[in-house]
Specification:
Strand content: 15-25%
Largest sheet: 4 strands, antiparallel
Number of helices: 4
Radius of gyration: 20 Å
Length: 195
């Protein structure tokens, strides 16, 4: 679950306007900013969903009811820069904060993990859950996003902008040129992921 949203000031609206070659100097250059922001956010969301990567750093919360691996838990979004909290919640809602000296982040571009520094992760009570809070993203600024992913965002947002008046999308897949830019970032899952 995404806990924070990308701030408007971080979105590359001026760069996107340049990409679209929108006219300037008419005294109302910002009249389309709200609409352009919507298309850029939609493109970012679509690309992040496709590659399981957060482009701009923000906070997430991940809750599980049982461990798949007793010694480590894979996180669903990458790249993760920090685990900010690790909490065990009982069925009554009581919370126990786990000491950071008992676990570590194992960074990975595709499948980062929270790893126990002991024999196993703390037991998740019956009817309870474990909540892992973390920060994921390439960085806090648009300039931290790899160039090929930034270009993919612009291409997809431009596609949304150019087809904004069409009632139904004709294409179910990414438009031409976007998918090849994403291929090296896609996580190939074999046998349902790491056990």
């Amino acid at each position: 679950m995404e806990q924070t949203q990308v701030p408007v000031g971080v979105l590359p609206l001026e760069l996107f306007k340049d990409h679209l070659r929108l006219g300037t100097g008419f005294g109302v250059d910002s009249v389309q900013d709200g609409m352009l922001e919507t298309y850029v956010r939609a493109a970012i969301a679509a690309i992040e969903a496709r590659i399981s990567k957060a482009l701009i750093a923000r906070d997430y919360s991940y809750t599980v009811s049982a461990w798949r691996d007793l010694a480590a838990q894979s996180l669903p979004v990458s790249p993760v820069s920090a685990i900010t909290a690790f909490v065990i919640v009982d069925r009554a809602g009581g919370e126990v904060m786990i000491d950071p000296s008992k676990y570590m982040l194992e960074p990975d571009m595709h499948r980062p993990r929270l790893v126990s520094l002991g024999f196993m992760l703390p037991q998740v009570p019956v009817g309870g859950a474990a909540r892992i809070e973390f920060t994921a993203g390439f960085g806090p600024a648009w300039s931290d996003v790899p160039g090929d992913l930034a270009q993919a965002v612009f291409l997809l947002a431009a596609h949304y902008y150019e087809h904004r008046f069409e009632g139904a999308a004709r294409e179910r897949d990414m438009p031409f040129g976007v998918a090849p830019l994403l291929d090296r970032y896609r996580n190939i899952r074999i046998f349902g992921g790491r056990s």
